[in-house]
Amino acid sequence: MESEDPFNNALAQLASITDIVSIDPEYYEMLKSPRREVIVSLPLKLVNGDTVTYTGYRVQHNNARGPYKGGIRYHQNVTLSEVKALSMWMTWKSAIIDIPFGGAKGGITVEPKKLSHDDLERLTRKYVDAIERDIGPEIDIPAPDLNTNPQTMAWIMNEYSRLKGHNVPAVVTGKPVEVGGSEGRNAATGRGVAICVREAVKKFLKKDMKDVTVAVQGFGNVGTNTARYLMEMGAKIVALSDVVGGARSVNPKGYFDQKFDDLLAESNKIGSISNVKGVEQISNEEVLESEADVLVPSALENQLTEQNAHKIRASLVVEAANGPTTPMADKTLQRKGIRLVPDILANSGGVLVSYFEWVQNLNRDHWTEKAVNERLEAKMTKAFYEVLDYSEKHNIDMRRAALVLAVERVAAAMKLSGWH
Ligand code: NAD
Rounded to the nearest whole angstrom, what is the distance from the C-alpha of residue 294 to the centroid of ligand 1? Predict the structure, then answer.
């Protein structure tokens, strides 16, 4: 049986490059464990009168290249193992997109849909109170992830600023533009994923984007923005899904041909993409197994596993979510000749524009959306081709190529700084 433990999977990925990576074994050993793991207890009196104690985490994996950086996730399945894995992936991601950050991740084990807006705000503020000394613009900078959004980040900034007695916008990224957020941050991860799809389609499928069909799993921040930019690039979206279920277009053309904003508005109004007019409801499994050129998992970990990897019909998988493919599924996809652009590269546009936001905050500056998007485009394509070139030169898959490059960059910083 394969492991679905995310940290075991992150360690298995790291183990897969031992024969290629050239780093001191001492640093390899250090990189296997996060440097700090903070667990906090968050008792909260809900508006309905009940008191419930939630558990919050902040895990700091490595800061050799700069302050710790990573999102905060609210989900009922958040565990220490998951947060540890995500913190390690953040270290690799910051290194691969080449920004001066390390890796961290946070989360609260909570089903946010069951809480009122008011409860969520107070839970977020309690969490900030509990980890106040662990975060800060030069220490560790949180950002949005699953079920957290710009509003959550505004609460984090406000609570941290209240504790410090002055405004500290650079403590968190992904804020609304009105309180120091960057233009283009909210859509940045999806924009970066779409850039990776475009380049990989050119390279591996040798097709024009107008002739490419795509299935996207997950219709939140990353999934919606990925679908939006892919549609703008001319790609044909044939299947979409969210936690409620999947949707396949039933119009004669076989793909979603309405304006993206109309699709999103209707899905938001009805509560799920699977209920919008003119779609056939399908299961999430069917979305993953769609007959499409490209599959973009944009929801959760462990979606492509030993059980379903052999049924994947796409020629290209671009990982918008973190850790959607288990190590065993990875091997199956490779055996089937399916090309894969790994998460630490494909979804790094989010942390990249988070870095731009942090720089703007520290300089009390505000860039135009055009300036942000041009820098995003330049950095994403550069990172994509660095990973691709390394994979071709060493005849390895892009996941291992990205990991080797990242680990070598982090280990070089550890060595130069004299870590022992
Ligand atoms: P989100 O909360 O905005 O959206 C998540 C989406 O996934 C929702 O549409 C939800 O309905 C759907 N979903 C949940 N469970 C599902 C299931 N079992 N099957 C199908 N769909 C399901 O979260 P997000 O910010 O879009 O994050 C999605 C993924 O992208 C996560 O893996 C996250 O770690 C990763 N990521 C996010 C960012 C970012 O900037 N937000 C950056 C890098 C990576």
Answer: 18
Residue type, 264: L
Residue span of the structural domain in which 199 resides: 188-346
Residue at 5 is within a domain: no
Do 278 and 245 reside in the same domain of the chain? Answer: yes
Q: How many CA atoms lie within 13 A of 299 on its CB side?
A: 21
The CATH number of the domain holding residue 49 is 3.40.50.10860
For ligand 1, say whether the CB of 350 is within 6 Å of any of its atoms.
yes
Q: Hey, whose CA ends up nearest to atom 18 of ligand 1?
A: 243
Both 61 and 134 in a single domain? yes
Total count of domains within the chain: 2
- What strand order describes the sheet that includes 236-241? 279-282, 246-249, 236-241, 213-217, 294-297, 316-318, 339-341
Encoded amino acid at 47, one letter? V
The DSSP letter of residue 64 is S
The pLDDT of 81-89, averaged and rounded, is: 98
How much is the pTM? Answer: 0.97
Tell me if 7 is assigned to some domain.
Answer: no
Count of CB atoms situated within 10 Å of the CB of 328: 18
The rounded Å distance from CA 37 to ligand 1 centre is 24
- pLDDT band at 334, cuts 50/70/90? very high
Helices (H), 175-293: 185-200, 221-232, 260-270, 284-288
Share of the chain above pLDDT 70, in %: 100
SS3 214: strand
225 in Cβ contact with 189 (< 8 Å)? yes
Cα R_g (the chain), whole angstroms: 20
- The active-site residue, picked from 69, 93, 105, 236, is 105
Whether 263 and 302 share a structural domain: yes
Decide if 126 is catalytic.
Answer: no
Q: Could you tell me the CA-to-CA distances from 217 to 111, 176, 188, 317, 331 in Å, in that order?
A: 20, 26, 18, 11, 21
